[in-house]
Amino acid sequence: MDSSSTQESSLSIIPSNNTTATNAIDQTPSLPSIHNTYISAKASWMNWYAAFKNILPTYILIHLAFFVITCLAVLFTLKDFSPQSMSISTLWQSWLHWDTINFRAIAANGYTMSRLTAFFPLYPLLERSLTFLTHDYLIAGLIISNLSGLGMLVILYRLVQEDFDHERAARTVLYLSVFPTAFFFAAAYSESLFLILALLNFYHMRHGHWWLAGLFGFLAALTHASGLLLLLPFCYEYLSQHHFKLKTIRFNILSSLCIFAGIAVFAFYCYFRFHDPLAFSHAESFWNRKLSLPGYAVLRTIHAIIISPGFLNFQALRNMLYLQLHSFSFRNSSLLRDSIP
Q1: How far is residue 161's CA from residue 172's CA, in Å, rounded to a whole number?
Q2: Cβ–Cβ contacts within 10 Å for residue 93, how many?
Q3: 296-299: Cβ within 8 A, 24+ apart
Q4: Are the C-beta atoms of residues 258 and 215 closer than 8 Å to each other?
C-alpha cells in the first residue's frame, strides 16, 4: 500500500477537527435564539409593570379611604369636645379585632388549643418570621396582608387582560377593591394571602406551568381550607389543555397532588399535636361554622331581624346591614357578568 492510500485511510478513520468544531457549534445556542429569549422576557416584565401601574391608583385610593375611616373611628372612642389626644399607635391598634387576635396568638405561641386549628398555619408563620424585623405581630400581619393585596390586584389584572382587554381588567380590579367586605384584604387576616396564592395557581395553570401551579396550590392549601378546592380547576384545566385525551397525559399531572399535600401536611401536624388529623375541621363547630345550602344564611338573617326586640336594635340593624351588603354584592356580580360578552 502506498503512502497516499495510507493517508486516505487514516483520514477516513480519524474525525477531523472541523467536524468536532461543527458539532460544538450545533450544540451552542445561537445568538438569535438568546436574543429572542431576552426580548420575550423583557416584554413579559413590561406587561407586569404595566399591570402594576394600572392598578396602583385604585390601590392607593382605597387605602387612603381606609386610612381616613380609621382616623375618624377615633371619634367613637372620645367624648364630645374632649381635649384628649390618642397615640399614633391607635391607627393600627384599631385593626386588632376578631380573627386578627387569633392569628397573633398562633404566631406568638403556636397552636395551644385545638380550636385554633381552624386558622391555617402559613399566615401566622409568615407573621412570626416578619416579627424579627417589626417586633410587633400586628404590624407584621398588616404588612403581609397589604403587600399580598397589592400583588393580588396585579395578578388579577393580568389574568383578565389576557382573556379580554385593559378596560375589563381595570373594572374587575375596581369592583373587587370596592366590594363591601374588601377591607378584610387590608386587615391582618389571611384572605389576601390566600387569594394571591390562588390567583398565582390559576395564572400558572393557564400557562401550562404545572409544577409552579402545584407549588402555589400547596401554599394556598396551607393558608385556608378552601385551598383544597383548587384541585377541581387544576384537573379541568390540565385535561382541557391536553384535549381530554388520556394518551396525552404526562408525568406532570402529579403536580396536582401538591394541592392535596398542603392539607395533608397540616393534618399530620394536627395528629401529632392533638391526636386528631381532622382537628381543623372539627374546630369549625366551636366557631359556629357549618355546611349549609346556598341562601340558607340569608333566611337566617331575615329570621334574626323578625325575632329582634325592635327596629332600633343592634341585632336588627346589623342584620339589615348584612342584607344590604349581600344585595349590593349580588348587583355588582350581575353588572360584571353583563359586561362580559
Answers
A1: 10
A2: 13
A3: 298/323, 298/326
A4: yes
Q: What is the pLDDT of residues 33-73, one digit of tens each?
A: 776 777 777 788 899 999 999 999 999 999 999 999 998 88
User: pLDDT per residue over 99-113, tens digit each?
Assistant: 999 999 999 999 999
- How far, rounded to the nearest angstrom, does the alpha carbon of residue 187 sit from its chain's CA centroid? 15
C-alpha triplet 185, 190, 193: angle, nearest 5°: 75
Closest CA to 201 of 217, 189, 188: 217
Residue pLDDT, tens place only, 156-196: 999 999 999 999 999 999 999 998 889 999 999 999 999 99
Instruction: Look at the block and give the residue holding cell 362580559.
Output: 340
Amino acid letter at 337? Answer: R
What is the spatial distance between Cα 120 and Cα 224, in angstroms, rounded to a whole number? 6
184 near 113, Cβ under 8 Å? no
Give the residue carrying C-alpha cell 401566622: 124
Phi, psi dihedral angles at 164 (to 5 degrees): -130, -105
Which residues have C-beta within 8 Å of that of residue 326, sequence separation ≥ 6? Answer: 298, 301
> If you search the block for the grid coordinates 340593624, which residue do you land on?
317
Range 298-302, long-range pairs (CB < 8 A, 24+ positions): 298/323, 298/326, 301/326
On whether the CB atoms of residues 217 and 237 are closer than 8 A, the answer is no
What whole-number distance in Å separates Cα of residue 304 and Cα of residue 173? 34
Read out DSSP for 162-198? HHS-HHHHHHHHHHHHTSTTGGGGTTTSSHHHHHHHH
d(CA 241, CA 233): 12
Question: What would the grid cell of residue 168 be?
Answer: 375589563
- Computed on alpha carbons and rounded to an integer, the radius of gyration of the chain in Å comes to 28
Residue among 106, 113, 95, 107 nearest 286 (CA)? 113
The residues, any chain, with a CB within 8 Å of residue 140's CB and separated by 6 or more, are 107, 126, 127, 128, 130, 131, 133, 134
Give the C-alpha separation, 319 to 341, whole Å: 35
